[in-house]
Recover the amino acids of this structure.
């Protein structure tokens, strides 16, 4: 009997070895992707319970947003985002007083933890590293550097610091500062600008698009997420989108859109009929992977005074190849359009760029240079002479509207708000400029230009102490 069992054991061992060899053979012939490992702790520590219960009573709006979020569903609490380390520069010192107030729920020392008031991309990167890395390379994250390299309002100090804080920097972002007591400097806060420089050195605010405290991917997919900043006379992308066929279809059928599709699965034709801003510039589509770098997929830099390729944009070279990026955007278009339609669109777009550059911008720029060279305009300030304003608005207002109107297929912005206005502005500008040159008369200087008190030093934390 014992001998029989030995034969059986030997047979089983042979089978196991054969199967093991077969598995190894299969493994040698196939590539297995790295398995993602997720571990979610559903339990909530007492300190986090204290946060939730206290803010539920004192800030019910914050609690309700969080309670409806995917974070809450996954057991992600206040502490997972706001917890700081002892000694961090951005610890909210004023928050610590709440742990010694007996009249507050959970206001006891045993629940005390260091809290950071501002949640930054660095904090978000603990769970979303790829998205943060992509975002850090974008124009959004680096927009403070870009505007300081381009903008005469800042460099010439032609607006006040508070006009910047409440206007320009509310979208572009501030350089966050702390006072000697560790409180956030109100001159730099509150702010959710896309290029905000945070105390921990990270750039940007994820809450610009995924607003607190729901942090909804659905919200960020809607065009309304972009319209806080991308509107108005100088960059009316939301108005342009509203006029385009894409915007028309969106408004007609948005109730049928599945904005809550899981990240990476939002599919044209299945989840939405016509694209939103995110669908073209960020979301995945077909062969094109999703990205949080909005600089990708661009083949022209239409915000610049002279339209150039993104990699040639001196304030912030993209590091991309415009031909590769154009092909990505074309692949996004191919979900709904044929190649003949796509190629004909780009033919018209490229021609509009050429017309703007050669017919309007370059001659106007050359004329401005001539006026400065002859001493008929003064370079000391900008905007205190009318021709400086005319030149600025030619590229910053009408010129952008013309290019962006063509780019996003809004005929009224391409023509009436765009090239039509370019013609009028250009004609008036050239008439006055030539009159000054012919007569040798200097331009009138507005000596009482109001509130031109802004600091002209570039932020040292961005540019160093140069």
């Amino acid at each position: 009997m014992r001998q029989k069992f030995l034969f059986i054991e030997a047979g089983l061992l042979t089978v196991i070895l054969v199967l093991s060899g077969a598995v190894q053979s299969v493994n040698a012939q196939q590539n297995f992707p790295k398995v993602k490992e997720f571990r979610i702790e559903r339990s909530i520590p007492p300190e986090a319970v204290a946060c939730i219960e206290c803010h539920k009573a004192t800030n019910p709006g914050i609690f309700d947003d969080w309670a409806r979020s995917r974070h809450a569903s996954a057991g992600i609490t206040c502490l997972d985002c706001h917890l700081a380390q002892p000694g961090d520069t951005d610890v909210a010192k004023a928050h610590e007083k709440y742990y010694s107030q007996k009249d507050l729920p959970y206001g006891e020392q045993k629940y005390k933890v260091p809290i950071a008031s501002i949640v930054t991309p660095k904090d978000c990167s603990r769970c979303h590293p790829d998205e943060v890395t992509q975002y850090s390379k974008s124009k959004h994250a680096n927009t403070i550097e870009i505007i300081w390299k381009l903008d005469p309002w800042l460099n010439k100090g032609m607006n006040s610091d508070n006009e910047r804080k409440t206007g320009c920097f509310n979208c572009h972002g501030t350089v966050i500062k702390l006072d000697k007591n560790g409180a956030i400097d109100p001159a730099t806060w509150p702010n959710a600008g896309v290029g905000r420089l945070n105390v921990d050195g990270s750039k940007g605010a994820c809450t610009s698009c995924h607003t607190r405290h729901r942090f909804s991917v659905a919200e960020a997919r809607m065009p309304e997420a972009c319209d806080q900043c991308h509107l108005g006379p100088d960059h009316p992308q939301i108005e342009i989108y509203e006029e385009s066929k894409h915007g028309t279809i969106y408004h007609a059928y948005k109730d049928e859109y599945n904005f809550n599709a899981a990240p990476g699965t939002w599919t044209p034709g299945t989840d939405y009929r016509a694209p939103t801003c995110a669908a073209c510039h960020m979301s995945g589509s077909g062969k094109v992977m999703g990205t949080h770098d909005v600089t990708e997929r661009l083949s022209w830099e239409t915000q610049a005074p002279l339209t150039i390729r993104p990699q040639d944009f001196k304030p912030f070279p993209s590091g991309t190849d415009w031909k590769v990026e154009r092909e990505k955007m074309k692949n996004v278009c191919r979900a709904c359009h044929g190649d003949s339609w796509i190629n004909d669109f780009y033919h018209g777009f490229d021609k509009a760029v050429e017309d703007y550059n050669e017919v309007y911008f370059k001659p106007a720029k050359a004329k401005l240079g001539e006026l400065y060279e002859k001493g008929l305009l003064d370079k000391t300030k900008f905007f205190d002479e009318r021709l400086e304003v005319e030149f600025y608005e030619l590229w910053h207002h009408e010129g952008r509207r013309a290019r962006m109107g063509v780019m996003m297929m809004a005929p009224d912005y391409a023509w009436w708000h765009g090239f039509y206005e370019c013609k009028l502005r250009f004609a008036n500008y050239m008439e006055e400029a030539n009159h000054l040159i012919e007569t040798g008369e200097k331009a009138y200087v507005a000596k009482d230009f109001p509130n031109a008190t802004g600091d002209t030093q570039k932020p040292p934390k961005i540019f160093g102490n140069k």
